[in-house]
Amino acid sequence: MTRSSLNRPILVVDDEADIRDLMEITLMKMGLSVDTAEGVNIAKKKLNENKYSLVLTDMRMPDGSGLEVVEHIMSNNMDTPVAVITALITAFGNADQAVQALKIGAFDYLQKPITLAQLRTLVKSAVKVQDENQNAPIAPPPVQAAPKSVAAAPVVSKPTDSTWGQNEWADVENTLSEKNKPTISQVVPQKIVDNITLPNAVAPSMEKRRVASVAAVAPVAETPIVPTAAPKVSGSLKRDNDVPRILGSSQQIEEVRRLIRKLADSNVPVYISGESGSGKEQAARSIHELSSRADKPFIAVNCGAIPENLMESEFFGYKKGSFTGADQDRLGFFQHAHGGTLFLDEVADLPLAMQVKLLRAIQEKAVRRIGDAQEVKVDVRIISATHKNLENLVESGAFRQDLFYRLNVVTLKMPPLREMHEDLERLIVHLLHKHHGTGIRMTASARDALLHYGYPGNFRELENILERAVALANNNTIDVEDLQINHQPMSLDAEQFPLTEGLAATGLPNFQMGHTQLQDYLDDVERQILQQALEYTRYNRTQAAKVLGISFRSMRYRLDRLAIE
Ligand SMILES: Nc1ncnc2c1ncn2[C@@H]1O[C@H](COP(=O)(O)OP(=O)(O)OP(=O)(O)O)[C@@H](O)[C@H]1O
């Protein structure tokens, strides 16, 4: 499949009408055409009769399993990527089914509840998987296709795919937006800005509410704003050609770009700090792409998502027969990244035992696969990141000091979005135009709410809010309710999530000595906190774990233990 084959519809297979509708609306908002099937048999029939660019199938349906849909596609050699949608994978749950689906040919899986961002990423991956199949093989050295473990799910990016490697954003846009419209990447940012003119009517009451730092931002109209009468944004949204992933003109972002360029020239380990969604991975990819390693792999590993018992084999690989189930030789992340960059995301979540092994591999520049007597030299540049305070973890003994010094030769700090206030309006306009074309409008109150929100989830949250708002908007006009955000003032400290307010308001349950069991009481408190964190992050478990300062693994375990769906 080429990107143009996304002109073919996507087939959504799910027995629940609500989910089918939601996915259909979302995919259509991405400019994609969609067909649906409410069960396995109809899906097979449709697959026999039509060609699809991608199939998304639920696992459990009344007339069969999503695995049958995957098998049908594979056994008939259909050139259609298929991804499965599973119920929540718990410690004892249905991971096996997801693994089974991957084994028989699905290229990915999603867990319910699905976020819009996940869906978008999945569509991107479908295109990428096919592109890679068509253009492969290019370096690295002979490795097996990195098998995807359910929890680890490393992103193995194709090393020399310049289109994808250079500018993922522009690529998504080219892939997903209406083909004939000039897209944001075809129009220089200044031009977007020039296309936007001041609304004629300026409501004085709204004018007063403008804050000093957005003085450059346009006055606000009370009526819906069409693109040609949208707020005028002065200056351009800075996007340097050599660091296209990092947008913004604020001083902090300029400094980030300067450091990225500088660090790209050297091989020193870089530690990227910053809140969740603030662009740490984008910065890591930018360093890689600007470095002499750009044509070699960039391997991103989410350390918090790998089950502890799989860590060693995932990082270092194994020899066939070294343990039950090791039915073939397999390389680990280090060898996959040979010559390139290994990005250790959420590095604070590495268990201590693994920290020792990692330190050794970094110091020795060599790895030994499980079951292998020989060490193999590896040339890997390490970039690490976490949203946690690594220094505090070193102090508390949860993170090894020696590894900390190894990783943290240079620190790059990503600023939170709320500190880039002068960029905010331009970013909103940019993202809306980029992903949704120029036909989308916004009311003055929605704009006001967006400009005054605190974005604890940073860029990622902004993208999600806009994406959801576009999906919910009536008549292509985003209103304040479509944003579904808590109105949180900009001045709020990062640590003061509304969650704290929520908890204080709720109060602790009464502990009745002699009647209440301590464990039941603590479970109740924990359940309340988890539920609030989930509500706050709109059921994004990764984000919720981050907000609570626990690992994803721990979050999963707790949700499972307390039977929180
Ligand atoms: N400065 C930026 N300019 C443009 N887009 C950005 C910027 N920072 C982040 N983004 C976008 O925000 C989203 C999240 O970015 P990224 O994954 O790099 O964040 P992160 O800090 O690594 O998140 P996490 O801590 O959750 O792993 C991505 O879609 C990315 O494109």
TrEMBL record:
<feature type="modified residue" description="4-aspartylphosphate">
    <location>
        <position position="58"/>
    </location>
</feature>
<dbReference type="Pfam" id="PF00072">
    <property type="entry name" value="Response_reg"/>
</dbReference>
<dbReference type="GO" id="GO:0000160">
    <property type="term" value="P:phosphorelay signal transduction system"/>
</dbReference>
<dbReference type="InterPro" id="IPR011006">
    <property type="entry name" value="CheY-like_superfamily"/>
</dbReference>
<keyword id="KW-0804">Transcription</keyword>
<dbReference type="InterPro" id="IPR009057">
    <property type="entry name" value="Homeodomain-like_sf"/>
</dbReference>
<dbReference type="GO" id="GO:0006355">
    <property type="term" value="P:regulation of DNA-templated transcription"/>
</dbReference>
<keyword id="KW-0547">Nucleotide-binding</keyword>
<dbReference type="GO" id="GO:0043565">
    <property type="term" value="F:sequence-specific DNA binding"/>
</dbReference>
<dbReference type="InterPro" id="IPR025943">
    <property type="entry name" value="Sigma_54_int_dom_ATP-bd_2"/>
</dbReference>
<dbReference type="Pfam" id="PF02954">
    <property type="entry name" value="HTH_8"/>
</dbReference>
<dbReference type="Pfam" id="PF25601">
    <property type="entry name" value="AAA_lid_14"/>
</dbReference>
<protein>
    <submittedName>
        <fullName>Two-component system, NtrC family, response regulator PilR</fullName>
    </submittedName>
</protein>
<feature type="domain" description="Response regulatory">
    <location>
        <begin position="9"/>
        <end position="127"/>
    </location>
</feature>
<dbReference type="InterPro" id="IPR027417">
    <property type="entry name" value="P-loop_NTPase"/>
</dbReference>
<keyword id="KW-0805">Transcription regulation</keyword>
<feature type="domain" description="Sigma-54 factor interaction">
    <location>
        <begin position="246"/>
        <end position="471"/>
    </location>
</feature>
<dbReference type="InterPro" id="IPR002078">
    <property type="entry name" value="Sigma_54_int"/>
</dbReference>
<dbReference type="InterPro" id="IPR001789">
    <property type="entry name" value="Sig_transdc_resp-reg_receiver"/>
</dbReference>
<dbReference type="Pfam" id="PF00158">
    <property type="entry name" value="Sigma54_activat"/>
</dbReference>
<keyword id="KW-0067">ATP-binding</keyword>
<keyword id="KW-0597">Phosphoprotein</keyword>
<dbReference type="InterPro" id="IPR058031">
    <property type="entry name" value="AAA_lid_NorR"/>
</dbReference>
<dbReference type="GO" id="GO:0005524">
    <property type="term" value="F:ATP binding"/>
</dbReference>
<dbReference type="InterPro" id="IPR002197">
    <property type="entry name" value="HTH_Fis"/>
</dbReference>
<dbReference type="InterPro" id="IPR003593">
    <property type="entry name" value="AAA+_ATPase"/>
</dbReference>
